[in-house]
Amino acid sequence: MKEIINKIDISTKIKNIKLSSCIMNASGALCSTEKELSDLLDSSSGALVTKSCTSDLRNGNPKPRYFEWNVGSINSMGLPNLGIDFYINFLKRKKTNKPVFLSISGFSLKENLYLIKKANLIENISALEINFSCPNILNRKKIFGYDSLYVYKFLKNVFKFNKKPLGIKLPPYFNEIHIKNISSIINRYPVMFVTCVNSIPNGLYINSDTESVVIRPNNGFGGIGGEIIKPFGLANVSKFFSFLRKDIYIIGCGGISSGKDIFDYILCGASAVQIGTQFIKEGISVFDRLKKELKNFLKKKNYFSIKNFFGNLKKF
Ligand code: RRO
Fold first, then answer.
1. Coil, strand, or helix at residue 69?
2. Catalytic site residue 134?
3. Residue 28 alpha carbon to ligand 1 centre in Å
4. Catalytic one among 134, 196, 253, 268?
5. Is position 133 annotated as part of the catalytic site?
6. CA quadruple 202, 251, 313, 144: dihedral positive or negative?
7. Distance from the CA of 150 to the CA of which of 5, 41, 81, 129 falls in 20 to 30 A?
8. pTM value?
9. Residue pLDDT, tens place only, 218-265
């Protein structure tokens, strides 16, 4: 019994980046500080993704800025991070075989290009995940992923110098035509992967007893994550899988809390997955549990590798 489980292979590849497990943390979830990053490097996750960084340290929005209930979470963190130099120095100091994805979230095209130039000089960074989907910057009205001209300008410029594997973290889209349009832009450039999806923007959770919002910034509005967003995450992965060039990889994210959820994402075309809300809820042991659950689920289905069912979602 144990032997069969041991033979089940949940390793994966994002092009030439090998991950011993297809399960990693989502950017933003317990990956900001030295301790959090060290714990992730020591964990059974397949890769480390850092908190999205900016040129300078940011304290983020006033607290309370994160709240979770049984099936979801709402946040308006406001991009708190220790600044790119901290993350670069951390990675220079740490020797690890685990792939490292540096998440970058500049406030402008210029800042993003500057941050990417800086990261290009660091050997220990396996890939860059450019965050085009932060929902919570109070004085920045736009989510870059919803602005196809911005995405086009960024891609046109970044590949003039960038040598690092580069992916984009996208917001959820709710119209097929929006996914088709963004895909047709991305398809023209050597993008290695997309991560779908960031939290659903502009959500509101309220406490009926106190008749109040539950987070302070932006009058209680924020990005929604957790179990309730899984159908939207799956839909985005599935649609991007059909519109993107076949050599562009997809990392699935949104509402994963079980091995079966991971199976569903891979079935829709994800090559790896990220865990956000559930990681914050459960802590670092989530990676061991999900690994076990995924392997048990595959065993029940007589699959021995994620390759056996990757992208094989059946349609009527
Ligand atoms: O820090 C945040 O408020 C935040 C970011 Br950068 C993001 O990409 N997604 C999110 O839900 N919160």
1. strand
2. yes
3. 6
4. 134
5. yes
6. positive
7. 81
8. 0.98
9. 999 999 999 999 999 999 999 999 999 999 999 999 999 999 999 999
Atom of ligand 1 nearest to the CA of 199: 11
Given the residues 133, 183, 238, 271, the one annotated as active site: 133
Q: Which residues line ligand 1 (CB under 6 A)?
A: 28, 52, 75-79, 105, 131, 133-136, 198-199, 223
Q: Given ligand 1 and candidates 134, 169, 215, which is best to mutate, with the most ligand atoms within 8 Å of its CB?
A: 134
**Domain of residue 243, residue span:** 2-60+81-201+226-308
Q: What are phi and psi of 271, to 5 degrees?
A: -90, -20
Q: Is residue 90 part of a domain?
A: yes
User: Does residue 315 lie in a domain region?
Assistant: no
Q: What is the distance in A from the centroid of ligand 1 to the CA of 76?
A: 7
Q: How confident is the model at residue 139 (pLDDT cuts 50, 70, 90)?
A: low
**Is residue 120 a part of any domain in this protein?**
yes
CATH of the domain at 282: 3.20.20.70
Q: What's the half-sphere exposure (Cβ side, CA atoms, 13 Å) at 144?
A: 22
263 within domain boundaries:
yes
- 51 CA: nearest ligand 1 atom: 6
How many CB atoms are located within 10 Å of the residue 48 CB? 24
Number of domains in the chain: 1
Q: How far is the CA of 239 from the centre of ligand 1 (A)?
A: 23
N- to C-terminal Cα separation, the chain: 35
Q: What is the dihedral of CA 210, 212, 217, 218, to 10 degrees?
A: 180
The residue whose CA is least distant from atom 9 of ligand 1 is 134
Asked if the model's pLDDT at residue 1 lies above 90, the reply is: no
pLDDT score for 142: 85
